């Protein structure tokens, strides 16, 4: 047999069971070897004197009473007998397994695995691990795959048994096919990180001699998985650079520096560093594919604006696509203020026909230098004269295809993706590994930290009285009403009830507005503009309150039933205040029932750093659906875990980058990665 042969040729794998193997993704003998268990049952024998209540263990003893089966109820029974281990006599019970009576013989030694019940001095049997003909002839319970070994437990599909799978895997090991499994890591990495070789690791993943052997095997397999994945990302990145000639955006750096000096504020070191990385990419002949991530309020927009300016200086057009009209209008106003000398257009749905026609004509003729738009930018009939830079803001709000359509409006323009959702570095280098990542992790000067407090519902009246005093000092306040079971109707009722309660409390003292998802875009826009223009003191909103909308005078954010939100959403909402120079507050009103709810409230009051919060969120929720990254093609790893194996991931990435830098030394490895990744 060969590793590439189908599992159907293995003994004990019939036509029916081969379908079950296929459901598990096992098609060949090699697939079977690499189908690792997810845990182990430890059948090492223990003395009853060492056990604590509730512990699972294997006890070896001599049977001292015959097996007795008692029947009660429909198909219910209990098998009981006693064994002697040293000086201790232990009662053993099995429920609904009467057939085990055949394995119980007085005077013979038996190994039983079960749960220890201290009070009854009884073992609730789960499995008869082994039988021995008699104590005198010696015990076979310490054989290779017996009591002293760790028995693997695999994920199965309906109609399969653990014993069947283990038997088939044994068969492959016994036929010595493992020796055909090729090593896939460079020798220098195995030595450098003291890794097991591949064949040893695969054997120890299935049948480790002890937990230390399993630990070393797991370390090797995790590194291999993450290293191979990072190699594929490097191959993809290299393909982007070599296969798709980018645009050389040539501009005068002095003009950019002049524009920076004219800004009404000073850029932070992190902003300047991110801008430098972006501009270097744009100048190069390679295609830029960069992710710009920055915490809430860190000033990503001005960095993106300066990149757009650089494109325009080089006689290219620049486009920025944002998820909502409110945000589009805000970007448009900011760009017009920054670059009064340029022709800037706003393309959103709902424009008058004549106005839209004029904007489209200006885009295709090259009269327009910059355009800000919503998804209206990617509609049919929107064409550019010479598109050189495409920016997508809050990229996770757009599908991959929407971003692709915008990119294809030009001749391979440079691409910059922005997100205000701090993605943990762990995920950024994995999910966006084919992109370069720039991070703005510093808040602009003059920004005061937002003080966050967690209060219970019983303290809400105190919160209202404190807010009343602050509104009297000209402060503006957001009240956020939570989403209930994702029902817009209930969501709206909830917001309306809060709106009514606040109107009753404040009366004529404060003007209160209501913003919710059922409103038309222009209605939402109007309410938001009124709030921005200080015509409203308090804004009650559902979660439609937009990321990035700037109201510098808003200093208090009250989030009702805050435990209904995830960490990242709470952090985004909190970022709506603290946009000016006044001291700002976020008040989380919640009576969480769960420990995770309490933990979320606690961590929100402890840090304002979005990256720390994102790491915590990742630890609490796992890497599955966090930030909607599943749509980015985040891989499912067999052994590796992106949160806990972050250090291995970093090392794997560093080594993969080095391999591609010295590609001539590793032609076979790179050729294999290119074929496996489908990049050939």
UniProtKB/TrEMBL annotation:
<dbReference type="Pfam" id="PF17191">
    <property type="entry name" value="RecG_wedge"/>
</dbReference>
<feature type="domain" description="Helicase C-terminal">
    <location>
        <begin position="459"/>
        <end position="624"/>
    </location>
</feature>
<dbReference type="GO" id="GO:0006281">
    <property type="term" value="P:DNA repair"/>
</dbReference>
<keyword id="KW-0067">ATP-binding</keyword>
<keyword id="KW-0233">DNA recombination</keyword>
<dbReference type="Pfam" id="PF00271">
    <property type="entry name" value="Helicase_C"/>
</dbReference>
<dbReference type="GO" id="GO:0005524">
    <property type="term" value="F:ATP binding"/>
</dbReference>
<dbReference type="InterPro" id="IPR011545">
    <property type="entry name" value="DEAD/DEAH_box_helicase_dom"/>
</dbReference>
<keyword id="KW-0238">DNA-binding</keyword>
<dbReference type="GO" id="GO:0016887">
    <property type="term" value="F:ATP hydrolysis activity"/>
</dbReference>
<keyword id="KW-0234">DNA repair</keyword>
<dbReference type="InterPro" id="IPR012340">
    <property type="entry name" value="NA-bd_OB-fold"/>
</dbReference>
<comment type="function">
    <text>Plays a critical role in recombination and DNA repair. Helps process Holliday junction intermediates to mature products by catalyzing branch migration. Has replication fork regression activity, unwinds stalled or blocked replication forks to make a HJ that can be resolved. Has a DNA unwinding activity characteristic of a DNA helicase with 3'-5' polarity.</text>
</comment>
<comment type="similarity">
    <text>Belongs to the helicase family. RecG subfamily.</text>
</comment>
<dbReference type="Pfam" id="PF00270">
    <property type="entry name" value="DEAD"/>
</dbReference>
<keyword id="KW-0378">Hydrolase</keyword>
<dbReference type="InterPro" id="IPR045562">
    <property type="entry name" value="RecG_dom3_C"/>
</dbReference>
<dbReference type="InterPro" id="IPR033454">
    <property type="entry name" value="RecG_wedge"/>
</dbReference>
<dbReference type="InterPro" id="IPR004609">
    <property type="entry name" value="ATP-dep_DNA_helicase_RecG"/>
</dbReference>
<dbReference type="InterPro" id="IPR047112">
    <property type="entry name" value="RecG/Mfd"/>
</dbReference>
<dbReference type="Pfam" id="PF19833">
    <property type="entry name" value="RecG_dom3_C"/>
</dbReference>
<keyword id="KW-0413">Isomerase</keyword>
<dbReference type="InterPro" id="IPR014001">
    <property type="entry name" value="Helicase_ATP-bd"/>
</dbReference>
<keyword id="KW-0347">Helicase</keyword>
<keyword id="KW-0547">Nucleotide-binding</keyword>
<dbReference type="InterPro" id="IPR001650">
    <property type="entry name" value="Helicase_C-like"/>
</dbReference>
<keyword id="KW-0227">DNA damage</keyword>
<protein>
    <recommendedName>
        <fullName>ATP-dependent DNA helicase RecG</fullName>
        <ecNumber>5.6.2.4</ecNumber>
    </recommendedName>
</protein>
<feature type="domain" description="Helicase ATP-binding">
    <location>
        <begin position="281"/>
        <end position="440"/>
    </location>
</feature>
<dbReference type="InterPro" id="IPR027417">
    <property type="entry name" value="P-loop_NTPase"/>
</dbReference>
<dbReference type="GO" id="GO:0043138">
    <property type="term" value="F:3'-5' DNA helicase activity"/>
</dbReference>
<dbReference type="GO" id="GO:0006310">
    <property type="term" value="P:DNA recombination"/>
</dbReference>
<dbReference type="GO" id="GO:0003677">
    <property type="term" value="F:DNA binding"/>
</dbReference>
